[in-house]
């Protein structure tokens, strides 16, 4: 389901330890940290950063390619070691195809890309969610910056539909 607006989705990084291109049927996981992305069991409006989507720097994990022990050690423990104010609060997950289609009508171009971005040596199942190239030029949203907020809201709803919050065991392999 790649488009010219998401060229990163066609880049095969298997030489870098990755499992390959992100398929539409792959489950993508976003880990949640209170109070940054979730509060009182509810995703915050800023759980998905527009700036990081625009910069192509919104990190997620590919569920089938990250063992739960690696998610705990590398992602969760690593994040908590960097910021003692945070508390791990669970995860949300969504199909890559649903993320790619979030907020898109039949006539509109794709707004979101999901692509492989392995991090050696421990997190080969790392991926990125980003705004598609067509949205990054600053002219796509026009004077209606609220459209960008609405698109991110639609993306949040895609993640919420599988439950909030989920445990590591609900998201990752043994």
Structural overview:
- It is a single chain.
- This protein is of the alpha+beta class and 174 residues long.
- The protein has one domain (7-171).
- It is 25% helix and 21% strand.
- It is built from 5 helices and 7 strands, in the order E-E-E-H-E-H-E-H-E-E-H-H.
- The longest helix has 15 residues, at 68-82.
- 34% of the residues are buried.
- The mean pLDDT is 88.
The gross shape turns out to be globular
Strands ordered across the widest β-sheet: 5-1-4-7-6
Helix content: 25-40%
Low-confidence stretches: none
Strand content: 15-25%
Keywords:
alpha+beta; 174 residues; 5 helices
Topology:
Elements: E1 27-34, E2 38-39, E3 42-43, H1 50-54, E4 58-62, H2 68-82, E5 87-95, H3 96-100, E6 112-116, E7 126-131, H4 146-160, H5 168-171
Antiparallel strand pairs: 1-4, 1-5, 2-3, 4-7, 6-7
Brief overview:
The chain has helices at 50-54, 68-82, 96-100, 146-160, 168-171; strands at 27-34, 38-39, 42-43, 58-62, 87-95, 112-116, 126-131.
